[in-house]
Design goal:
single chain, seven-stranded mixed sheet, mainly beta, 11 strands, four-stranded antiparallel sheet
């Protein structure tokens, strides 16, 4: 059974860092587009970053470019989101998700509807 489990969230001061993990089971994560999304209270879910299957091309929302970095460790079947220079507006529940099938396309999407399987989310709170 395909499953994604996020971890690594928590409370951090502005300017601090966190690394989120998305551990996959039931499928080979390296062949699929994997996306990180976030949802703040009262707001729609938005794409933060994604990494494409096979090639591993990355894509970032403008709001996190230069601060966040997505990476993949195939041996651990895990995708990471390194978040630096965190701001209060980064506060949200962060989710990872996978596309429904393996993809050779180099460009991954930030559209939530293109992802079929979701983790349970991990809370990130940036506050002094």
């Amino acid at each position: 059974q395909l499953q994604l489990v996020e971890s690594g969230g928590g409370l951090v001061q502005p300017g601090g860092s966190l690394r989120l993990s998305c551990a996959a089971s039931g499928f080979t994560l390296g062949y699929y587009h994997i996306g990180w999304f976030r949802q703040a209270p009262g707001k729609e879910r938005e794409g933060v970053s994604c990494i494409s299957g096979y090639v591993g091309s990355t894509n970032y929302a403008d709001s996190v470019k230069g601060r966040f970095a997505i990476s993949r460790e195939n041996g651990k079947n895990t995708v990471y989101l390194q978040m630096n220079s965190l701001k209060p507006e980064d506060t949200a529940i962060y989710y990872c998700a996978t596309a429904p099938s393996p993809s050779l396309k180099h460009l991954c999407s930030h559209v939530p509807g293109e992802y079929s399987y979701w983790g349970q989310g991990t809370q990130v709170t940036v506050s002094s």
